[in-house]
């Protein structure tokens, strides 16, 4: 996972004596994508349908305590009743408080080819974030 450029700038400013970044208060969502974005632009989010809702309706994620500069999800994420045949290639982490803010983005280690009715699952700990 890579940190969104806006969030990275906030953290660097704070680390070097500037104002602290706005705390994320959640809920935090995992948005799923068929095309990966980059440091400044989101990818192409999968469409709403079946068990997935775009944006702030995407699955909520919680995190275990950070250790050694890394943090991982602490619960499984399951999206059931996939609405269409497509390949999920990326995900993004978003804070949905107030105006939604993208926090991180990244390509999946292995793309997930989905058929209508499938379940997309990420085991607890499968999504990680690292600064070290």
SSE blueprint:
Blueprint: E1 2-3, H1 5-15, E2 28-35, E3 44-45, E4 70-72, E5 77-79, E6 86-95, E7 101-114, E8 120-122, E9 128-130
Distance between the termini: 12 Å
By secondary-structure content and strand pairing, the structural class works out as: mainly beta
Mean pLDDT: 92
Output the radius of gyration. Answer: 15 Å
H/E topology pattern? EHEEEEEEEE
Distinct helical segment count: 1
Strand segment tally: 9
User: What's the story with the biggest beta sheet?
Assistant: 5 strands, antiparallel
How many domains would you count in the coordinates? 1
> Could you estimate the helical fraction of the residues in percent?
under 10%
Largest beta sheet: strand ordering:
1-7-6-2-3
Strand percent estimate: 35-45%
* Outline: globular
What do these coordinates show?
It is a single chain. The protein has one helix at 5-15, and strands at residues 2-3, 28-35, 44-45, 70-72, 77-79, 86-95, 101-114, 120-122, 128-130. The protein has 132 residues and is mainly β. The protein has one domain (2-21, 29-130). A five-stranded antiparallel beta sheet has the order 1-7-6-2-3. Strands 4-9 form a two-stranded antiparallel sheet. The protein has a two-stranded antiparallel sheet with strand order 5-8. A hairpin with an 8-residue loop joins strand 2 (28-35) and strand 3. The mean pLDDT is 92.
């Amino acid at each position: 996972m890579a940190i969104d450029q806006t969030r990275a700038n906030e953290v660097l400013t704070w680390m070097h004596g500037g104002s602290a970044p706005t705390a994320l208060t959640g809920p935090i969502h995992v948005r799923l994508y068929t095309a990966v974005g980059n440091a400044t632009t989101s990818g192409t989010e999968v469409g709403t349908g079946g068990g997935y809702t775009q944006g702030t309706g995407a699955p909520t994620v919680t995190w275990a305590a950070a250790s050694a500069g890394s943090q991982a999800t602490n619960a499984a994420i399951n999206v059931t009743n996939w609405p269409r045949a497509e390949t999920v290639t990326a995900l993004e982490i978003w804070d949905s408080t107030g105006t939604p803010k993208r926090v991180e983005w990244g390509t999946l280690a292995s793309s997930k080819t989905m058929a209508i009715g499938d379940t997309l699952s990420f085991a607890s700990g499968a999504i990680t974030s690292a600064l070290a």
